[in-house]
Amino acid sequence: MEQEEAERNMQILLDFLHCLRKQKVDELNKVQTDLQFIKEDINSVERHRIDLYRARDRYTVKLRMLGDDSSTRKPWPSFIDKNSSGIVSSSLNVRGVMSAGNLQNKLIDGKAQASGHGPQRKDALSEADSQGFNQSGLSIARKKRVHTQFNDLQECYLQKRHQLANQLHIKQESDKNVIHREGYNAGLAEFQSVLSTFTQYSRLRVIAELRLGDLFHSANIVSSIEFDRDDELFATAGVSRRIKVFDFSTVLNEPADVHCPVVEMSTRSKLSCLSWNKCWKNHIASSDYEGIVTVWDVTTRQSLMEYEEHEKRAWSVDFSRTEPSMLVSGSDDCKVKIWCTNQEASVLNIDMKANICCVKYNPGSSNYVAVGSADHHIHYYDLRNISSPLHVFSGHKKAVSYVKFLSENELASASTDSTLRLWDVKENLPLRTFKGHTNEKNFVGLTVNSEYLACGSETNEVYVYHKEISRPLTWHRFGSQDMDDADEGTGSHFISAVCWKSDSPTMLTANSQGTIKVLVLAA
Fold it and tell me: What residues contact residue 158 under an 8 Å CB cut-off, 6+ apart?
């Protein structure tokens, strides 16, 4: 019996050691592969850096040659003072040291020329030094940002390197004639783009501000803020029961404590969401707390259509980009409805089991709609077959409050579990989870562009994330200089709406006090 027990124990130990060896060999192989990638990329980057230096040197030499050639062919004319034998180059006049009018009063010997050029050269050198220091400072700041997020960047680099290396291998196997730039891997190129856009900015700067606060209304929460088709106008809506349209350039270029809207429309109920039509510039849709979806003409300030089929509060509305007459809405009545501006009734209904918090058309097709629900999931539908969703994205731990598309294949979502998530709707895969802001009970806004996600926080801050990095790129706090001390002390204010200006670093932001700030990403 003891012999059998000893043999069993030895076998268990041997199995463990074999398993451990296999695991470590796999880890070693992965590290060796990573090191090989890194070695190849270091050599590649060094070669390209040398090429850049050589190109710069060739350009500098060419400029000097052109300058010398020009001076040989077209010498500067000279002025001769009758009272002296000296010669003064007219180039001094061009440089602003001497003018023809007072030439006779100036010394023209070599000392005069030297004294004329000396301070200029010193100024030029000082300016160059200043630029050098500025560039050096920016470089140091960008390197610091790299080290701060080193682990996330490392993960991003290795993921792209492995993924695109595999794709390249498959492509090369299928097409032996494919020619690639020597030594420069596609994964490295993609990571370089990420690194560049990630380190480009470090803060959010306020470039304009306005207040929507009304002396006679204490409720100033801005539920939605949206740019129009051309980014010339933006509209706000919220619990004040008013849609206000502002001229963006006026807000930006004419600072004032209070800006008057160019258009204002009153509604019967509190408003939850706005959506501009991306084809018909003067059309905007709204959803409200009574469940009414309205299409407005901001030129006439009149409603064009009112849809009253929802039985409870409608949280979200969105115009299709590809079919401008189509819009979708979602409500607490657990229904998603598709509307056509040419018809008085809904053209499609999707009955779901939980409250609908947000809806969004895919920007590339009016056939696909993403639906965020109180059941913690995102339901992705093909409207040509609504019997069941194409896919249900799971991962959030609380209600999904916003869904927004970065592209036809990339979908971002926000939840009251204090996270944002990024999904691939083509491959039905989770890509990344973003953490840093606080969001447990309120709608705090979500906006996206091709590279960045931004959202509000219940700490009265705006957060910006790069889509490839899980932690915040930067954030900005409302309040430090623009709130009364009493207001700051309450700590109950939160960001309620955000909106990027197309694919630019400029963003509209609003909070629960009715304060709107125009922020821009800065170095």
Answer: 34, 37
